């Protein structure tokens, strides 16, 4: 946000964010100019107010729409400053929710945070993030795009947007979150980013483990002669029938497209091409459908059981619930990654 005095530029076509504006913001190299209203900027941002006040008290004439003065912002990205100014002036921002929206929104969020106008643009920030998820929420998004949206929500102080972004990071990616630490989010502390990545990794691993070990247990047959709660169960265990059969196991493997259980969620030596996201795994669970055992569940009772599709849908909901996004308020306060994965009961 470096600023210094500069004489008005001549013969250059500005971007008219405010056609009757009294100031040209010159971003990056001189010549890239944005015409804005100093009144709107100073009302929205104490940072802009300080810059403009310093500029117009150092021997420079006061703002005048007939002869706008140049105010350089030499270290700022032109496109991000233009988006910020359009947002502050209430203009429509063309293409902001386009194919490269995540990176552009993050750069805009950096400007909003840098110029201290997060509170002023609270509703606009909320609408922007929720508009993105409304458009791309069902799309297959990369980890870099998702992390950019999470970082943008963090900078814009949008709890709902942050929760949605981190929810998608858990559900829709299989890559290690350590990759996020290598991305350029210099405006967010490394410690906060590290804690978030650790919490996401733990929540995703817990959901994967529930699928790997909990899903087979839904079809585990029980012998009526064997009572787990019996104090003297060894005799019962010896008399229990051998009633395991592979109908449900085969149905699980078929739904997940694997020959052996459990499936691999990440590439490994045994499964180098594995790339199973939790979102895909949940859909696989829902496709198993009603599964009736081929032989009686227990020879003592003659009862024939199975696993219903409704029970599988309930299990899928439980897994998805485990993938709830993180609480932004907790991220801002926490000094321990373990606490981030717990359900927040303090912030709305």
Task: Describe it.
With 348 residues, the protein is mostly helical. The protein has a domain at 177-189 and 201-226 and 240-348. Helix content is 47%, strand content 6%. β2 and β3 form a beta hairpin. α1 packs across α2 (46-55). The radius of gyration is 29 Å and the shape is elongated.
- Widest β-sheet, arrangement of strands: 1-3-2-4
Helix content: 40-55%
Number of strands: 6
Order of helices and strands: EEEHHEHHHHHHHHHEEHHH
Separation of termini?
Answer: 34 Å
**Using only CA atoms, what is the Rg?**
29 Å
Summarize the entry for a quick read.
This protein has about 350 residues and is mainly alpha-helical. The protein has helices spanning about 40-45, 45-55, 80-90, 100-115, 120-135, 145-155, 160-170, 190-215, 235-240, 245-255, 280-285, 310-320, 330-335, 335-340, and strands at about 15, 25, 35, 70-75, 290, 305.
